[in-house]
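Private note to self, pasted from the team thread so I don't lose it. Backbone tokens:
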């Protein structure tokens, strides 16, 4: 490289250095062809999972499933799947490798479903903390008005007493 520079030559592709549009298109096409070959070779591992989950599930959930199932990315890339990498791989619809339905938008989740997931996480965390021998910082209990509610302060009475009696005996 130094010898070439000493003679007056510049490193790199002369067409790219000159910002020639034709050269840029050729290089981009060659890069896309290499990616298509790698993805087509490894499609047997990840595409069945994508076909099973899409478009019913969002891309992030599909990525989580692929990464937990230890489905490697195509080629010799040891990195875990990312949302963008998976979308680029599935965009091979133009090559006829995947169905166009896989790229449709996933249905939006209702706010009620998101809130329910949050309540379930709080409930599991409380049970886990109680099982570990630690006093939970927030107790979860059921009331007639609210399906699940987090107490501000966990007491033994709030964990064993019905919610309508909490605070009435002066212990909660």
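Design output:
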């Amino acid at each position: 490289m130094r010898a070439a520079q000493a003679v007056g030559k510049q490193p790199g592709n002369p067409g790219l250095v000159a910002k020639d549009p034709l050269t840029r298109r050729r290089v981009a096409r060659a890069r896309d062809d290499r990616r298509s070959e790698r993805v087509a070779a490894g499609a047997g591992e990840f595409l069945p999972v994508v076909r099973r989950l899409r478009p019913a599930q969002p891309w992030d959930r599909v990525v989580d499933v692929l990464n937990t199932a230890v489905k490697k990315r195509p080629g010799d890339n040891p990195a875990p799947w990312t949302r963008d990498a998976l979308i680029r791989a599935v965009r091979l619809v133009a090559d006829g490798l995947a169905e166009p339905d896989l790229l449709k938008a996933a249905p939006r989740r209702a706010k009620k479903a998101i809130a329910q997931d949050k309540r379930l996480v709080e409930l599991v965390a409380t049970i886990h903390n109680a099982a570990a021998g630690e006093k939970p910082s927030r107790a979860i209990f059921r009331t007639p008005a609210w399906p699940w509610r987090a107490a501000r302060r966990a007491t033994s009475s709030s964990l064993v007493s019905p919610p309508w009696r909490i605070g009435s005996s002066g212990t909660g």
